[in-house]
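Complex record, two chains
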Amino acid sequence: MNIIRQLTEKPWLVTDQHIVEDIDESAFPSAAPTGLRVYFAVATVLFGLIALAYLMRMGVGHPGEGLDWRPMPKSPLLWVNTAILVLSSLTFQWTRVAARRGQRDRMVIGLLTAGFFSFAFLVGQLIVWRGLADAGYFAMANPANAFFYLITMLHGLHLLGGLVAWSRTTTNLWDGAEPAEVSLSINLCAIYWHFLLVVWLAFFFLIMST
Amino acid sequence: MVYATLAEDLKELHHPKTWVGKYVWSQDHKVIAVQYMATAIGTGLIALVLSDLFRLQIGFPGSLTFMTPERYYQFVTMHGMIMVIYLLTALFLGGFGNYLIPLMLGARDMVFPFVNMMSYWVFLLAVLVLVASFFVPGGPTGAGWTLYPPQAILPGTPGRDMGIILMLASLAIFIIAFTMGGLNYVVTVLQARTRGMTLMRMPLSIWGIFVATILALLAFPALFVGAVMMLLDRVLGTSFFMPAIVSMGQQLGYNGGSPILFQHLFWFFGHPEVYIVALPAFGIVSDLLAVHARKNIFGYRMMVWAIVIIGGLSFIVWAHHMYVSGMNPYFGFFFATSTLIIAVPTAIKVYNWVLTLWKGNIHFTVPMLFAIGFIFTFVNGGLTGLFLGNVSVDVPLSGTYFVVAHFHMVMGVSPILVVFGALYHWYPKITGKMWNETLGRLHFWLTFVGTYLIYFPMHYLGFLGMPRRYYEYGQTALVPHSAHMLNAFITVVALAVGVSQLIFFYNFIWSYFYGPKAEGNPWRATSLEWQTPQTPPEHGNWGPKLPTVYRWAYDYSVPGAPEDFIPQNVPAGGTGRHHPT
């Protein structure tokens, strides 16, 4: 039933008995995917506002503002990190397919690899931080630096949150859970990883192009 | 359409055995709701006392020896922030949202009970961090509740050392807590409605809470970003918001930051926040009016659409809080227009409330008194909103008491009247006891008349040009003696209203222990929460079988029906309306 039809229903009439009858009892989408989608809306607003603040602080469209903005050096390591994050997302997708087919061994390998890539990404980001700080690019020195640290920190924290879900899923599977029991979690993890990849790619583009 | 609860029918609920498991680390939405309510109201009491203290300074300058200018600003700041966020937002969404959503929709609980429990405890942490700022060196922040940089984190502003850090940290924690709760409320409404509970059969309380939660989920990230960035400005010395500035003869290390950027972020949250508080109030008041006037709500679909439209519009009006910030006049034109457009769906709601009362069988119960009181104060506050929504009128008035009057009428008193109405209305269901009618009426009249006497005269002070935010006025030609007398009068009434809230607390606490036992459905209402097998409902709400819904929540005084109300879970059986109402 589409949303317009739902919102134009005339609830005061007691004639629409069919509503009680025509429930498809096999279709009970779990609440978790909906919850995740709603969270994507929240996170999109969060990261979107940071991107807007970034552009505003640069003085885009406001000549004479943001004159103190000095772009950060483009660390080549960021390309490597981005590639690693793409790999972790791809691995999750592969694991998802394995879960759909119930291939337990592949699921274990996939989860472990995806987790490894995710941690590698976080470590890579920390190395970038370290390199920039050693070269004197502190957060307080310039707004471009401050935004860089803020964005990578919030993105990294989101990834860490995802890794909590990942570790629970992996432990469950390790402890002998059936593939079907963890396939929903793997699905959700994969979607979440794709989302974080898109967020990162957007910011990567923003940082590299400004 | 989805009815996840059909599957939930068979699911075993985890019933805790110990007292701690039942009432402290509880995952039951009803216990969490009461925890939210108690914490929010307790924090709100602090804010109430603060307001009476700084009102004493305004009405009787120098009467409190400890009321230094710093303290005055700290008290004003904490009063505003607590009332808006930690009382109203937490109470409507965390309190009523938690209690009403599963019960009114025929669900056993929220869809993520563990996350729901965490939401409360993280909220409590936010409150504790906030309250801790009273005890740190330098005290809480005195930056004003909008926390505008650069002044909020400059030396010389009260609470600049630790207070502002704790304030910003507390806000960030609050937002994390709210997001956990908010995801629950939205997903529960979308996924856990019982059989037959279509979206358009949901009571308007749920519609208000549902849309307000969506607003909050999308608006709070702006405050989160603002708080984190200002925290970095304060702690690490970044320059997100801080321009190059000389403070007390010292050139500070900041450079090039944009204070206006913070204002945009703050009000992108701040304006939806008004409706985050108002929409649940709109919804709840609609239900109170229908139940206590024994009449279906007038124009149900229009009411739902108005809630949704107001929610959407609330995201494109934020800069009407920034007319005096020096923005481009064309922006002002746009935001004034969008602001005035909101008056249309809002007016529809007001007319529909009045038309619901028209020819109704009005019972002047205590909840009904509060609901009608709300209509008065809301219309009053809404009309002054038309003044302030226009740039040319706002500019001269924006620094005066007119704004204080408008704001408190529309966003302070109006929602609080609904909060009281709702508490009186659902208290019998929550506790299983009935409160004392006489004390309830006394509480209503003292609060309603009292708050009118406080805020109505402030409009005149505003027209007179009396500036807000001042610690004391001294001898100025601008503020005549009569204005000082009016201020003293307002303070006396404010103290009386503050003290009269003790009647409410006495009534509720006494009734909890000694009040008469309440029936399951004392108001003879139709919505599902009144049809539970037990009162107060036990964990799981519905016994072995979930209710099935056959009709909307407003079948009052249906012609030909044996009683003047038909609960939502009564099958059609020939009774019901077959024509538009």
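Note: Chain A touches chain B through 48 residues (CB under 8 Å).
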